[in-house]
Here is the input.
Amino acid sequence: MKKKLLYISLLIIILYFITYIHSETKREYYNLSSIFLNQRTSYFQNIKLRKIQISNIPDNNFIKSINLKDNNQNQIKRIPILMYHEIKIPEESSYGERYTVSPSMFKKQLKIMYKNNYIPISIEEFLNDNLNSVPSGKKPFIITFDNATSGQFHFIKQNNNLKIDPNCAIGILNKFENKYPDFKAKATFFIDFINSKGLFQLPFQQDQYWPKKLSFLKKSKYNIYCHTCFHNFISKVKRKTVLNNIRLYNYLIKTNNQYKILAYPYGDIPDNDKKINVIKKYFDFAFGAFSNKYGHKSYRIHSKKFIKYNIPRIEINNNLKNIKKYILK
Ligand SMILES: [Zn+2]
Here is the structure.
């Protein structure tokens, strides 16, 4: 009987401990769960907050477009750079068949680029690797003009007022932007001071309007860069001639451009280190007239394949051949 009592009391003690431990665990559990619940509350509050922030932005598609644009930008590895010379009816041009594109063909070329989702960016945007102006799903390209020909930028007089000729390159580009507002008319003019006969000539040929044209270009989204003063073959002339050409150009043209950029006349790359050092001293970047060893489209500036002093361009003639062959294929 005594033994039985001992067992019962032992059982009671054990039961008491179990209940105690259980209640402690329970307390602990409640403490933990309340912390957890608090965290969950703040977690949900955060979600709410995020929702509020998102709903503050007028259009939720805007967020989607940012993400898409980032992806879009990463997908773009190479950028085509178009090289034009004269924009004129071929019969009226002194630049020959190869280098003259008719105004109607130029419009056609802009249209085919636009229909294939290409949007112009400026040369600065390209060199800053800034593709923010390129909408989602679109691709960037660059328009450049060499030799400052009369068909690139031409004024006409109308009722005693000066007007940009609607058939010159700038006139066509402006009109194209008016018609298709997401196509921003941006282009670069590599200018020199010589005409097609090899004589000194102010850029774009209408000498009396040169100061007006220069100030227009400086204020506009179009920009001007160096094509040397006298358009020599760099590999055929002395280093000093190269130097004088650049110095004379710098004397005649003063701009506030972010970069110093050269387009080699005839796409002729310097043939020795002394001349290359002159180019490197005076310019941050230089554009060729053809492909470089990586092909026709330029790689982006941060790519290992980007060549700072031989950026390739695609020559555009009076047809759609090179656009289809090197860009759209
Ligand atoms: Zn040239």
In short: The chain has ten helices and 14 strands. The CA atoms of residues 239 and 275 lie 6 Å apart.
